[in-house]
Design goal:
By secondary structure, the protein is of the alpha/beta class. Helix content is 39%, strand content 15%. It has helices at residues 20-26, 45-57, 74-86, 100-109, 127-137, 151-167, 183-195, 211-217, 253-267, 273-289, 313-318; strands at residues 16-18, 29-34, 66-70, 89-95, 112-116, 141-143, 174-177, 200-206, 247-251, 294-299. Helix 6 crosses helix 7 (183-195). It binds 4'-deoxy-4'-aminopyridoxal-5'-phosphate (PMP).
């Protein structure tokens, strides 16, 4: 029997699950890394811990200090837990377009929540710039700066990639995921390529993001939009710089959502939309690499974080998205 000596020790070491439907459809083994099983419920607990511990080592955060961050929510949840465990305060700046569940969770965890209207990155009102200003104006505060602080991708180089390699016994042919900060994609890509240059790395980009065009044609260009939270990037963040990306796919919300609903209805996995987009990307990569290969992707967070949106028939209808049969109203 193993006893984890403290709660932050629960971060990482998540299981890999075989996704039956996607595997059967492609003749590949499609495996999902269960990041929803982290204590804060998402892939962002790992970078939250690495960013805070890196700052502590560099003397950037003193006892009783405050951690400030701009986030779509999940990094804020991870940081709030890390802050509580280490005796810091947390101030989380989040666009008011994100799910109510993430806002309620942040308040419940004790973070000071600052909601701001959605604004483009070029505007000083963008949540990232607002969080930087709040950090500057707060005494003894650390701005976590997840987009451009490479302690973020280091978390995935040192933990996620290593775990994937060990859990598959080195039998991994491909990896793909979408990008918010790029910490997961770049970190896992760099980490896996250190073990083997032969692993194919693919970007799965939602509509409305600019990275597909960048990796395909060298130009940052966005088209369309997505309701997926936590992903969709318009620039090359410091975390993305030098990421060894071999190929790229553009995945629609409809494709991602179809997998979210199928994985719940057929396999009992309740996931958020970025996970569905990742799974749709993993299927594209499986088709490229051919049958018999092993492809890993990230199951970023739980669908319980999106009950008011992805699992709400009125919201789905309003967005013109498919309603799963078990939520459709009886005639
Ligand atoms: N999915 C969800 C639900 C997220 O919150 C995030 C983080 N913003 C991501 C995917 C993307 O992760 P990363 O920041 O490592 O690119």
């Amino acid at each position: 029997m193993t006893i984890v000596p403290y709660a932050l020790g629960l971060i990482g070491n998540t299981p890999l699950v075989r996704l039956k439907g996607p595997s059967e459809e492609t003749g590949c083994e499609i495996l999902g890394k269960c990041e929803f099983a982290n204590p804060g419920g998402s892939v962002k607990d790992r970078p939250a811990l690495f960013i805070v511990e890196d700052a502590e080592e560099k003397g950037l955060l003193q006892p009783g200090g405050t951690i400030v961050e701009g986030t779509a929510g999940n990094t804020g949840i991870g940081l709030a837990l890390v802050a509580n465990a280490k005796g810091y305060k947390s101030i989380i700046v989040m666009p008011d377009t994100q799910s109510k569940e993430k806002m309620d969770t942040l308040r419940a965890l004790g973070a000071e929540l600052v909601l701001v209207p959605a604004a483009p990155y070029s505007s000083p009102c963008h949540f990232v710039h607002q969080s930087r200003r709040i950090a500057e104006e707060t005494e003894n505060a650390l701005w976590a700066n997840q987009f451009d602080n490479t302690a973020n991708r280091l978390a995935h180089i040192k933990t996620t990639a290593k775990e994937i390699w060990e859990q598959t016994g080195g039998q991994v042919d491909g990896f793909t995921c979408a990008v918010g900060t790029g910490g997961t994609l770049a970190g896992v890509a760099m980490g896996l390529k250190e073990f083997s240059e032969d692993v194919t790395i693919a970007l799965s980009d939602p509509h409305g993001a600019a990275l597909y065009e960048y990796y395909a044609h060298g130009e940052l260009k966005a088209e369309g939009s997505s309701v997926a939270e936590g992903i969709g990037q318009g620039r090359i963040t410091a975390n993305l710089e030098g990421a060894p990306i071999d190929t790229q796919y553009r995945i629609s919300d409809a494709e991602g959502l179809a997998w979210v609903h199928r994985l719940l209805g057929e396999e009992g996995l309740c996931l958020g939309l970025s996970s569905g987009i990742n799974v749709a990307g993993a299927i594209e990569l499986a088709r490229k690499l051919g049958p018999g290969k092993t492809i890993v992707t990230i199951l970023c967070d739980s669908g319980l974080r999106y009950l008011s949106t992805l699992y709400n028939p009125e919201w789905l209808a309003e967005k013109g998205l498919a309603i799963p049969p078990w939520l459709a109203e009886e005639e």
